[in-house]
Backbone:
């Protein structure tokens, strides 16, 4: 299995809007969750002998509707499935607003296709009801065919209901306290925070904004709501050229994919792993000018990467000691994702890899 490598091409950094770099503190969405029942399935529901909670839910619902089930009755239901319903409550949502919901089977139902979600209360982390969900479950991609043969191209146990929930309670959202609001950068960075402060003060006047740390920026804003909303609208559309991010290498240990956000160079190192060995070194060369040229003696370094594999195969790269070259060379001799993972971790531990290594 050969790992894939993706290196982002270094392009000039372009200006971005502040709304793409930061958000207003307190303006956030809230997750909602509820337990419900999907009915009307075509024999693809839960096997009630193995999911007793489905039967208990049916009996409890029927009792609330005035229907009493005789004691000892064994319900053999094939058209009902117990599900979890999830959604997010956007900021400033008001009662009556419609939300999309995701319906996921929690039993052993084979499919939710064609089912109808019964009225399900959706609660927040405080156990209060903020929305009610109900509607027909849509499972996309069912029954698609490829090359003349049927193929399942979607999870049949998960579906969505567009506009399936109605907001019943609003979450109070305050835009700062007094004449001050706070912006929060999506990624903590002192340089970017300074650049945002500079752009705000240039547009709205000195001392309008001040950085509290590498993430939080305090901004003075008008107190009346309409003026504050207009001020935030203008502020969010200011363009700022963010600072260059720290070098990062992301390795997916399952697929072997490697992504680098910029060129990453290596220091001198030597790594031995199984039947592979990697040596990175720099050869210095001296340039001596002619005696009468009035020049200076200069020393340049040429980085070499040497990779050997058992069996005598040898690769030598002289284009520069970059991590991209190492990964490509390892791929060419059949290194596995596990080999790459071990080698990159060893380089990071030795200090030769000067970039954040994130394994997902």
Residues:
């Amino acid at each position: 299995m050969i790992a894939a490598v993706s290196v982002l091409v270094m392009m000039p950094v372009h200006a971005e809007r502040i709304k793409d770099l930061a958000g207003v503190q307190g303006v956030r969405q809230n997750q909602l969750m509820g337990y419900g029942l999907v009915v009307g399935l075509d024999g693809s529901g839960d096997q009630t002998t193995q999911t007793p909670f489905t039967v208990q839910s049916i009996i409890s619902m029927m009792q609330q509707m005035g229907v009493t089930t005789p004691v000892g009755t064994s319900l053999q239901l094939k058209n009902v499935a117990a599900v979890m319903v999830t959604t997010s409550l956007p900021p400033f949502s008001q009662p009556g607003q419609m939300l999309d919901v995701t319906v996921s089977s929690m039993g052993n139902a084979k499919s939710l296709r064609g089912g109808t979600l019964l009225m399900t209360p959706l609660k927040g982390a405080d156990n209060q009801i903020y929305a009610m969900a109900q509607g027909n479950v849509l499972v996309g991609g069912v029954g698609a065919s490829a090359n003349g043969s049927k193929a399942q191209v979607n999870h049949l146990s998960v579906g969505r209901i567009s506009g399936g929930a109605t907001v019943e309670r609003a979450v109070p959202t305050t835009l700062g306290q007094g004449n001050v609001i706070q912006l929060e950068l999506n990624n903590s960075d002192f340089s970017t925070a300074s650049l945002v402060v500079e752009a705000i003060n240039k547009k709205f006047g000195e001392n309008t904004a001040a950085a509290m740390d590498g993430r939080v920026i305090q901004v003075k804003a008008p107190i009346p709501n309409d003026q504050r909303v207009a001020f935030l609208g203008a502020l969010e559309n200011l363009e700022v050229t963010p600072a260059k991010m720290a070098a990062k290498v992301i390795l997916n240990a399952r697929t072997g994919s490697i992504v680098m956000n910029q060129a990453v160079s290596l220091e001198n190192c030597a790594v031995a792993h199984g039947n592979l060995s990697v040596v990175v070194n720099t050869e210095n060369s001296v340039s001596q000018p002619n005696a009468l040229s009035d020049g200076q003696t200069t020393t340049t370094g040429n980085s070499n990467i040497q990779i050997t594999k058992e069996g005598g195969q040898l690769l030598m790269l002289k284009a520069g000691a970059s991590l991209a070259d190492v990964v490509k060379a390892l791929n060419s001799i059949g290194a596995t994702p596990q080999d790459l993972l071990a080698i990159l971790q060893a380089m990071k531990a030795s200090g030769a890899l000067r970039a954040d290594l994130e394994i997902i």
Remarks:
- Confidence is low (pLDDT under 50) at residues 1-11, 295-301.
- Residues 190-204 form the longest helix (15 residues).
- The chain has three domains: 15-26+174-240, 30-167, 248-289+296-359.
- The chain is about 20% helix and 35% strand.
